Amino acid sequence: MRNTRNREDLHLISFLLFFLLSYSAALFSPPDNHLVDCGSSSATTLDDHRVFLPDSNCRSARLVSGGPKISVSADGESSLDREDLLYAPVYRTARVFTALSSYEFHISSKGTYIIRLHFYPFSTRRHNLSSAEFHVFSSVFVLLSNFTASPDTSSLKEFILAVNEEKLVISFVPASSNSFAFVNAIEVISAPVDLIGDTARYVQPDQIVRFDGLLKQAMETLYRINIGGPKVTPFNDTLWRTWVPDSSFLDSNSATKTMYFSGRIMYQKYGASREVAPDSVYNTARIMDVSNSSDSSSRMTWIFSVDHDRRFLIRMHFCDIASLALNELFFNVYINGYLAYEDFDISAATGRVLASPYYVDFVTDVGSSGLLHLSISPSRIGAASRVDGLLNGLEILKINNTAGSLNGELPVALILQSSRRGTFGSTLRSLICGLGFMILSVIGFMLMLRWRAESKNRVSWSPLPMDASGGKNAKWSQTV
Ligand SMILES: *[C@@H]1O[C@H](CO)[C@@H](O)[C@H](O)[C@H]1NC(C)=O
Ligand SMILES: *[C@@H]1O[C@H](CO)[C@@H](O)[C@H](O)[C@H]1NC(C)=O
Ligand SMILES: *[C@@H]1O[C@H](CO)[C@@H](O)[C@H](O)[C@H]1NC(C)=O
Ligand SMILES: *[C@@H]1O[C@H](CO)[C@@H](O)[C@H](O)[C@H]1NC(C)=O
Ligand SMILES: *[C@@H]1O[C@H](CO)[C@@H](O)[C@H](O)[C@H]1NC(C)=O
């Protein structure tokens, strides 16, 4: 009797626990979620209910500026297109820096962070933000160098990096002494632990090896694509990301069709979670079906222009929403012509569950071409299947170089050094100016004294008859 009772309790508890766990999994709430509306004097709420706090009075972000704290506001109507409307409220103001300045964010849980910097270069009577040229860096990594925001459009720069200190410092410094830096808004969000793993498949010309240490790299998101589906906005994404459609990157020779799945996406414990990519990414795909055509060498290919001579992380998201049964879909993945994954077996990868999300991370080096060709092609296995290849989502991230920089070749230390030299130069200049002014003032003061003395003497001495030169000498000796 007692035993059954206990068992019932246990059931109830495990049910509650399960409920709580699945509930908390559905609503990921990051330990740190610093949203800052730079240059603003009051909090700003976006349509997706996120609240950006003003940087002038914000407990989570401290602004340390080496110069005056200048905030600017857009005068008239902005020419934002529809894409930018979500963030439009935080594009109305910006913070302008004329010297090295930093935001310090309190970090409550060390680990991987997502950092988003928003730039919308409006123009006021005193500041044309399109003409700003500057560098942005953390204490370890250079995020942007010699950066100029393209006019009449907004730029969102997203970085993913590990923070192992109690605070994250993001610094801005003008690229030259007559330039300035600016930023409209900053997001610093703790990433879920499973967002970035430490290993990947390193695709090299002649082999695939294991890449370790992904968590030590800083990355910049270049492309985030919802393959075969519509644009996904921060409204529908678990981490407020934007995923764009793939059609403009698809090689026109690819014989493909898009697919939409209205069933339930089966997230598995060891597969991709809803934070890795949302339902809206996994429930659409582009598939290839070559069973009608005799050409089995066909591929579906996407082409991306990226920086040359850099290393990239390529994340491919798969969710078999097309097959009617398990163990039918097998395909090959090619990266810049190299076989990156042969006979990928999505059923085995997902633990034999259909419509279950899974992703594969590839690391590859791009040479002087600056192009990434990504292809899916049918495998020799499963040749008679309904579907011969599938892709649901794609992310391309740039990895820092050996100097710890994501843009440019200089490390943080050299940028700091040259900015100090810049400040030193300007200090020297102002010192010289100040000295010059002092000397001029002293001379002016002495001249005035002399003039006063002269005029006084002129009054008292002028009645005396005297020749000009003698009088002058006499007056001088009198005053002194
Ligand atoms: C601001 O600067 C950019 C680039 O220097 C220039 O193209 C633009 O015309 C300027 N805008 C205004 C309003 O002066
Ligand atoms: C995004 O969410 C809205 C409502 O929450 C829904 O109407 C819309 O279809 C979703 N878009 C996508 C691409 O899933
Ligand atoms: C192959 O043929 C089937 C039926 O004949 C058709 O539904 C399908 O769209 C065709 N696939 C392609 C890629 O043409
Ligand atoms: C990126 O920076 C980290 C930390 O400084 C370094 O360990 C790593 O080797 C760099 N990555 C590359 C590809 O050089
Ligand atoms: C900025 O550009 C100048 C001129 O091209 C270059 O000399 C300098 O190294 C660049 N600075 C950084 C931080 O990349």
UniProtKB/TrEMBL annotation:
Record-linked PANTHER family: OS03G0124300 PROTEIN-RELATED, RECEPTOR-LIKE KINASE
A GO term, aspect molecular function: transmembrane receptor protein tyrosine kinase activity
Protein name: Putative receptor-like protein kinase
Stretches assigned to the Malectin-like domain: 36-398
EC number: 2.7.11.1
Gene3D superfamilies referenced in this protein's UniProt entry, alphabetically: Galactose-binding lectin
Segment forming the signal sequence: 1-26
Native organism: Apostasia shenzhenica
UniProt keyword annotation of Glycoprotein present: yes
Keywords, ordered alphabetically: ATP-binding, Glycoprotein, Kinase, Membrane, Nucleotide-binding, Receptor, Signal, Transferase, Transmembrane, Transmembrane helix
Transmembrane regions listed in the UniProt entry: 428-449
Main localisation: membrane
Annotated localization: Membrane
Topology term for the membrane: Single-pass type I membrane protein
Cellular component GO terms, alphabetical: membrane
